[in-house]
Q: What sequence folds into this?
């Protein structure tokens, strides 16, 4: 399982495998990021089976199209500037995505 991370503006994308995503989240928390939870995405297909925003109380560990808010993304960006992984290619690209603000997790 992997995570496709797409900026809300749709201009920047990053892909992290499950282990890299977990490591990045843990490192951000260790560097002071306080997760604020995610927001469920409205259905885009008529008659789709969307479970609603209450299905994403924290939601960083699934790839269901939930939104990480602008404020949360910017706080994560600040924490990851000091990441022990910041020079790795996957984290560097993700940090670039965070500069763009809110993003979706697919």
A:
């Amino acid at each position: 399982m992997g995570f496709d991370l797409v900026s809300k503006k749709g201009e920047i994308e990053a892909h992290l495998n499950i282990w890299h995503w977990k490591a990045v989240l843990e490192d951000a928390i260790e560097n002071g990021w306080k997760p604020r939870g995610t927001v469920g995405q409205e259905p885009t297909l008529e008659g789709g089976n969307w479970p609603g925003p209450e299905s994403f109380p924290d939601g960083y560990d699934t790839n269901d199209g939930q939104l990480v808010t602008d404020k949360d993304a910017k706080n994560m960006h600040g924490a990851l500037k000091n990441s022990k992984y910041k020079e790795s290619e996957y984290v560097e690209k993700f940090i670039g995505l965070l500069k763009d603000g809110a993003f979706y997790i697919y």
